[in-house]
């Protein structure tokens, strides 16, 4: 049984102008200790999926359909009290900006100790010991001294290390990392991702990595789910999706990576922008931006088909996989 199994998840936002569908029946799973990437541009629905799993959707957002099964229980059916026992305990989340996570007026030690005591019946001395151990695991020098530091006294990279340490405090089964390195310098980004990968492996923790960067996904995850306009358009084993992408959107994301352009040449880009929720095109939502569009793409939304375990939502999937599309 999968650690997390999301099936046909629908998330809606009722507005005065009608109901907007942010996620339209997405499905994916995470096994124990597995690392799964969720990829897409801004507005694809990546963060909405994470907030839905943790029941943190901002009102009037709501889960309108589907199920989210974690460790055998459907999270959509849990009471507020029972959900609190899961959130921050069995499932932890790492946000992209550590200053949005850390309280600026409390020391690092106070925040870590309070987190532990909120989920466990332990003494302050034991909580302090665990906090020091976790800070050491994320390579923070002099962890005993850092417990008495305030967030503003640490660099961006160190703050994110603290956030990772807090996420590991309760020994969760799953960590959701939402663009965890976006606010950091490029060199620090690589260090943080390498650290997260090593910690997930050593602790046997499942990971959902939310990002727009397929290069990062290829280095960290084992499977990848590509979202577009709230729909899964491609998913499968990471190496296969990265090296043999089928959906035109996935191909566009990979072609846009800086390393794909010759020195001095303009970077490749996908024309147009992600459609807003109140203006999703008829048929395939990607067709206005697609280089392989045909009339049938504008008429009906394609189903998610399996090509030897590789899932693709495109009417020309077989042609594209065989290299026969033009």
TrEMBL record:
<keyword id="KW-0813">Transport</keyword>
<dbReference type="InterPro" id="IPR003593">
    <property type="entry name" value="AAA+_ATPase"/>
</dbReference>
<dbReference type="GO" id="GO:0015833">
    <property type="term" value="P:peptide transport"/>
</dbReference>
<keyword id="KW-0067">ATP-binding</keyword>
<dbReference type="InterPro" id="IPR003439">
    <property type="entry name" value="ABC_transporter-like_ATP-bd"/>
</dbReference>
<dbReference type="Pfam" id="PF08352">
    <property type="entry name" value="oligo_HPY"/>
</dbReference>
<dbReference type="InterPro" id="IPR050388">
    <property type="entry name" value="ABC_Ni/Peptide_Import"/>
</dbReference>
<dbReference type="Pfam" id="PF00005">
    <property type="entry name" value="ABC_tran"/>
</dbReference>
<keyword id="KW-0472">Membrane</keyword>
<dbReference type="InterPro" id="IPR017871">
    <property type="entry name" value="ABC_transporter-like_CS"/>
</dbReference>
<comment type="similarity">
    <text>Belongs to the ABC transporter superfamily.</text>
</comment>
<dbReference type="GO" id="GO:0055085">
    <property type="term" value="P:transmembrane transport"/>
</dbReference>
<dbReference type="GO" id="GO:0005524">
    <property type="term" value="F:ATP binding"/>
</dbReference>
<feature type="domain" description="ABC transporter">
    <location>
        <begin position="4"/>
        <end position="254"/>
    </location>
</feature>
<dbReference type="InterPro" id="IPR013563">
    <property type="entry name" value="Oligopep_ABC_C"/>
</dbReference>
<keyword id="KW-1003">Cell membrane</keyword>
<dbReference type="GO" id="GO:0005886">
    <property type="term" value="C:plasma membrane"/>
</dbReference>
<keyword id="KW-0547">Nucleotide-binding</keyword>
<protein>
    <submittedName>
        <fullName>Peptide/nickel transport system ATP-binding protein</fullName>
    </submittedName>
</protein>
<dbReference type="GO" id="GO:0016887">
    <property type="term" value="F:ATP hydrolysis activity"/>
</dbReference>
<dbReference type="InterPro" id="IPR027417">
    <property type="entry name" value="P-loop_NTPase"/>
</dbReference>
């Amino acid at each position: 049984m999968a650690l997390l199994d999301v099936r046909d998840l629908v998330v809606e936002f009722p507005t005065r102008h009608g109901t907007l569908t942010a996620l339209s029946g997405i499905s994916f799973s995470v096994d124990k200790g597995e690392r799964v990437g969720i990829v897409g541009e801004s507005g694809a629905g990546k963060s909405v999926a994470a907030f839905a799993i943790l029941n943190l959707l901002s009102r009037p957002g709501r889960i309108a359909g589907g199920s989210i099964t974690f460790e055998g229980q459907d999270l959509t059916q849990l009471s507020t009290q029972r959900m609190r026992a899961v959130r921050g305990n069995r499932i932890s989340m790492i946000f992209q900006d550590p200053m949005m996570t850390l309280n600026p007026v409390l020391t690092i030690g106070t925040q870590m100790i309070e987190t532990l005591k909120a989920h466990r019946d332990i003494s302050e001395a034991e909580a302090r010991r665990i906090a020091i151990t976790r800070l050491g695991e994320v390579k923070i020098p002099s962890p005993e001294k850092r417990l008495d530091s305030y967030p503003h006294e640490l660099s961006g990279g160190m703050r994110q290390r603290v956030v990772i340490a807090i996420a590991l405090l309760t020994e969760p089964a799953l960590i959701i990392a939402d663009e965890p390195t976006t606010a950091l310098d490029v060199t620090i980004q690589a260090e943080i991702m390498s650290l997260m990968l090593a910690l997930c492996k050593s602790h046997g923790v499942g990971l959902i990595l939310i990002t727009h960067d397929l290069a990062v996904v290829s280095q960290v995850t084992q499977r990848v789910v590509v979202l577009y306009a709230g729909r899964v358009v491609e998913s499968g084993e990471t190496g296969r999706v990265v090296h043999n992408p089928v959906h035109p959107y996935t191909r566009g994301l990979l072609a846009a990576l800086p390393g794909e352009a010759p020195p001095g040449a303009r970077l490749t880009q996908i024309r147009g922008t992600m459609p807003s929720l109140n203006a999703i095109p008829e048929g395939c939502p990607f067709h206005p931006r697609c280089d392989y569009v045909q009339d049938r793409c504008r008429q009906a939304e394609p189903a998610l088909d399996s090509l030897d375990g590789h899932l693709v939502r495109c009417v020309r999937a077989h042609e594209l996989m065989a290299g026969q599309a033009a």
